[in-house]
Specification:
The complex is a heterodimer of chains A (368) and B (343). With 368 residues, chain A is mainly alpha-helical. Helices cover 63% and strands 2% of the residues of chain A. Helices cover 60% and strands 2% of the residues of chain B. The chains are: A mainly alpha (368), B mainly alpha (343). Chain A: It is a multi-pass membrane protein.
Chain lengths: 368, 343
Amino acid sequence: MAVGKVTFTKAEREKLAEVLWLLNWISVVTGAILFGLGLFLKIEIQKWQEVMSDQGILYVPHMLITTGLAACCINFLGGKICLDCADTNKFLRWKLVMMPYVVCTFFFTSCVLVGALMCYSIRSQLEESLFLGLRNAMRYYKDTDTPGRCYLKRTLDLLQIQFHCCGNTGYRDWFQVQWISNRYLDMTSSTVVDRLRSNVEGKYLMDGVPFSCCSTFSPRPCIQQQVSNSSAHFNYDQQSQQLNLWRRGCRQTLLDHYTGIMQSIGLTVLLIWLFELLVLTGVRYLQTAMENVLRLGDPESESDGWILENSLAETARSNFNIIKNLGKCYQIDDDPNINVPTATAEQEVPSQQVQIPVTSIASRLRSH
Amino acid sequence: MPFMPVKFNLQKRVKLAQGLWMLYWLSVIVGILIFSLGIFFKIELRKRSEMMDNNESHLVPNLLILVGVLACGVNAFGGKVCHDSLDPIKFAKWKPMLKPYMLLCCGFNVLLLLTALLCFLMQFAMYLTLAEGLKNGIKFYKDTDTPGRCFMKRTLDMTQIEFRCCGNNNFRDWFEVQWISNRYLDMSNDEVKDRLLSNVEGKYLMDSVPFSCCNPGSPRPCLQHHLTNNSAHYDYDHRTEELNIWTRGCREALFSYYSSMMNSIGALVIATIFLESVDMAGLKYLSTALETMLDPENPECESEGWLLEKGVKETFTELLAKLKTLGKTNQVEEGGEAVTAAT
């Protein structure tokens, strides 16, 4: 009992081949789009890679780039094959390649689906990575003389300016780190020494934020020092405090930014996956229809096309048996080329060898 | 003796017509490009019109938009003529329009030349407008409660951050203006009162700059206040410190941005003039080649094409003579009327 059986006339087969040729060329274009989307995502992630603690998120763009390139190659080959499939003589050239091609395309299409699903599932990993990355970036903000960390200050400042955010969760995160390096602190001053002594770890903590936290929308010049002390500044009321600095945390802002990008990319990749699935189904129908035409011998006759020859359970069982027999082939007992000296062994081996191919051919003939 | 004659057979005529058709469509694309560049330039000017005192001249972008649209129209017509040129019936209806069309193309080239000149010359006006606009911008920075100027602070801050500049000529321009509004100054404080009394106009001046002048690439946290006082900060020498705040003035930064834009647009317009001239020459050759066919019924016959029917000097003298007679015909008529009136 074949799955999805459809009967094709000669004219229908030729039409199917033409349509598939066109669809394969459109798939080459969508493969290029996939490649472009992967490249765009990679560049966007690399822009702010320094504030991410682990690079696991880069799997997503790499997956998209490889599947995009694979799509271009596979669909280019598919286009050529489908063009030749309209004619039974030309089809003979591709006969042996068709089955592996269909299997390859099936695996590649599932890779596209995996890529799309990865886009949606990476959010929690990204949040964790951003939390740790931003925390470290704020800790190393002052280390502009340490090799490997000297550009963290600039990156973090540019991030806060561009995304209108301050700190990890909010601006108060800056109160818990020493963001002014010791080389710019006058250790002889009593105020500095008092502050250093005021906490266990000997850090110079203050309720001040870097200039990049300043909001450009504030009506008054930015207040960076003694931010939480409303009596330290004239006319520093609640509203002034609200507008003075950026209120959002950078982790949430970056998470929203990347989630937005990846959701749109994920949606596009899902649509491309559906299209690829359509093309794959069409190619499978064409392959089975052409094979059946060759089997029947008459190029002008009608032929059947299907997705699976037997039902799903039977196909799974036969494939499993093939894999088992593949394993058995490598066992020395059944190898006819080895010269076993005993006469009985010689007699036994050939008969066993003959049985297997007969049964497989018989089963194939029986099913038609 | 025709100027630069070329012999044409059928194949050459067909090739010329096809090549010219493609060239005309390329010119249409260039026309669209000029149109979109004009719109882009207009948007860029609008975006920063507050920095230019809101009286910047929109002559150049408007002219570019007009020229772009005209280029599309003129070249599309030329392409259509070329497309029909090999079919004698279709070409016959375009033939009488060719001479006025060539004159129109000449006029259009003159307009393009004028546009290119303006692109290069208007940069001086742009420089002066920017200087005036930035000076006022810095003056009105503190007036965030005055209607009409309440967004000046935000615009100036964003400009200084985006273009990596500070002040008009340099950061010292901020020392000469009061950029903190009186509503945020504690008038009962002695220090504030001293500072207000220290200058003739009673302005609160200080050697500080706004936060948007800060350079994120500086290794130390930004120093905004007491910039000329070395003892106010630890390990600070204001004469050697270069990375703390942006040292470039915003007038220079904005001017270099706009002048590079105008220079590239001007170069594109000059390239378009050359392209249009080539189009005109090609069309002249094609039309003369089709006109001089010895046997109009036989498309395979040879013909000759030229740029000018007579030599360059002769054509000019003819043109001058025609212009003179155009003036004189009016006089002759008047004299004739006087004579008829007398008789």
